[in-house]
Amino acid sequence: MIYLRITPVDSWFFRDGRPFHLGEATSDVGGLFPPSAFTVVGAIRAHLARSMGWREGKWSEEICRVLGDGYDLAGLRFRGPLLCREGDRGPEMLYPAPLNLLGKRNDSGYEMRLLRPGEEVECDLGRVRLPTAEKIDGMKQLSGYVNGDQLKQVLRGEVPEGRVIPREELWGTEYAVGLERERDTRTAKEAHLYSINRIRLVRGVHLIMGVEGIDEGLLEKLDGAVMPIGGEGRMGCVEMLSPGKGVSEIRQEIGPIDGRVRFTLVHITPAFLGRWPRPGESIPGVPGEVVSACVGRALRIGGWDSVNRRPVELKPFIPPGSVWFCEAEADELNDVMSVSRIGEYTGFGFGEIALGIW
């Protein structure tokens, strides 16, 4: 897999699932970052299609054969998008903080705890094992990012060293007002004023996207490209990283205990499951059953139909950082270790998970 570094020329606009129609209140539109894989993959494929001669309308059969069409990716496969930050020791990959990580500030910095399934309790879900931990008074879920070493500690069932990186250290939002102009007079068009929130990355922060299945000659068209990505036609610079400078998958070795395999699935990218499992049920494609979970509020992710020039249907995705606590039989260990992505649209980059223990 070849990895691409994508950096904004100025700022970006990625709309979320809130209304963006005439008469709607739009002052908070633009809250989805990192952008969905649909957005980034769409920008990459559109750029490659333009390099193959496409300008507008439907793609030719030749382009569809190489790049697919819509949800059909042909032979392409993507990974990400993931966040990366340049540091004193070089590039540092960043991952959404797992939602079973709680913390609060104290005199020495941050005090953190990891949630694990507790004893069975009676609640509106029946008798279930809810996530719990000792000495968590005053603590809350830590919204932000962790580096690879910290994520590995969490996957081992350990409290990570250091602190969670707040989003404010990675990007900021800028309120902007725009209007549509009359084509002939170039004056403001009545009732076409809008307001959005743009994303501006902190210097040294960029997106990483993995790509495979593209012919080498076509892939070179991406290196050094400047392409529109997201709303308003705002641009991003693309740089192809050298082979071997990609993103390795983070995994924790797992072994059976008393004939059972207890493992966690930590979402690195959003995942789409037709139905979210309850305790005692199975996750499609994953051996065993769910014991407990720390799952965030659903992300409403859609996309843009460039042919019909309209948004596509919004669907509820499991947010990154969500954690499933699962249990399987010992003889299912190899099947557990083979899980790296779950749900639908994995070819786009959705559904990537990291395996851990609890």
Automatic annotation (TrEMBL):
Source organism's superkingdom? Archaea
Q: Name the InterPro entries on file.
A: CRISPR-assoc_protein_Cmr3
Q: Name one Pfam family in it.
A: Cas_Cmr3
Q: Would you tell me the protein name for this molecule?
A: CRISPR-associated protein, Cmr3 family
